[in-house]
Amino acid sequence: MLTSKSKQKEIVYANHLWKVWSDFRYRIGEIIKIVSDNCGQLSGKALILGAGYGNDVPIEILEELFEEVLLVDIDEESLVHFIKKTSCPEKFKTMSLDLTGFYNPNINLNDMSNKEILEYIRNIVPSSELSRIEGSFDFIMNCNYTTQLISYFSNRNVRGSVEYTRAINELSNRTMNDIFVNIERLLKPGGILLHSTDLFELSFDKKTGAESIARKILLPATDYNLDNLYKVIDEYFPLLQEKGCTIMGSIPPKESLLLFNEFKSFFIPWKYDSSDRYEVTYVAYIKAWKSKKNDDSQNAIKEKKHSFFSRIFRKK
Ligand SMILES: C[S@@+](CC[C@H](N)C(=O)[O-])C[C@H]1O[C@@H](n2cnc3c(N)ncnc32)[C@H](O)[C@@H]1O
Q: Residue 70's pLDDT is what?
């Protein structure tokens, strides 16, 4: 666990991020409003996953739309800071839990051989503590955490082998599947899931001139103006995927997506960092899905109506 000194540093950094993320937060707020307008007004209960310090969450819009909001994060202290930023704290509840079920601060990969690490990763069976949550929600939001869930493994430099990359990629998919199954269980009929994540990294090293593949492709495609991203992203998305530009953990696996109906997608450029040496912009992917339960129940109603009417007509 973090010492209080490093926690203190983390809080100072989080306050800095509050400013850095303000534009992103504003845009997420606009997206939530668009989604709300298009789905017949969001209201009721919201569940915010990876809520952390609330840097990427338009808190005032959550307060405006929802009667109850449950904030979830593994970092209990960050949620205390989130609550301090709210103006109606009575609307909020917090829950500290591990979305993966395999977070283990005591495991030290440096004590293990590459073969042991690979075995360890392959044997992990994710079991999200979302299973502890009961009830149902009108709106569930994934707040930019899915690319972090396996970062403990992906940050190791073992590694570089194709086998290792495949193992952590598979672990990331197993983890997301497990989380999305829980989300599906918790989403009300007609409910909305909003998945927000960093998707492509556009980085440039001013000293060496090196740039990421995503930047090489997207800058000329947008006429060197990333505000044009929405015009070209559908055309370039398959190429970027083929070139391996998507950040691991950003796109949920196909099995997860089958649980929901597609609703709306948004791509926003987000300037993360510009130092003397590096320029980094992320393309964030914000995707809204609708619960399938709605359609199924509607279909069931339609089927019932159909058989009712066909019986009446038969009688006549
Ligand atoms: C990049 S941050 C997202 C920013 C965050 N919403 C904020 O505004 O501070 C990812 C968040 O996911 C949380 N997180 C990472 N791994 C987690 C896990 N296994 N279970 C629950 N939350 C986790 C982190 O504690 C962090 O708050």
A: 98
Pocket of ligand 1 contains residue 179 by CB under 6 Å: no
Dump pLDDT digits (tens) for 234-258: 999 999 999 999 999 999 999 999 9
| Cβ of residue 55 lying under 6 Å from some atom of ligand 1 | yes
Write down the pTM of the prediction: 0.90
Pairing of strands 260-274, 137-143: unpaired
Q: In this structure, which residue's CA is closest to atom 21 in ligand 1?
A: 74
Ligand 1 pocket, residue 100 CB under 6 Å? yes
The tens digit of pLDDT for each residue in 154-182 reads 755 555 688 888 999 999 999 999 999 99
Measured CA to CA, the distance from residue 90 to residue 69 in angstroms comes to 9
Nearest-5° angle of CA 76, CA 51, CA 101?
65
Query: Do residues 29 and 58 make contact, with C-beta atoms less than 8 angstroms apart?
Result: yes
Residue-range domains of the chain with CATH: 4-208+244-315 (3.40.50.150)
184 CB near ligand 1 (under 6 Å) = no
In the sheet with 68-73, reading across from the earlier edge strand, the strands are: 92-96, 68-73, 45-49, 137-143, 187-205, 278-291, 260-274
The CA distances from residue 144 to 82, 110, 312, in Å, are: 15, 28, 53
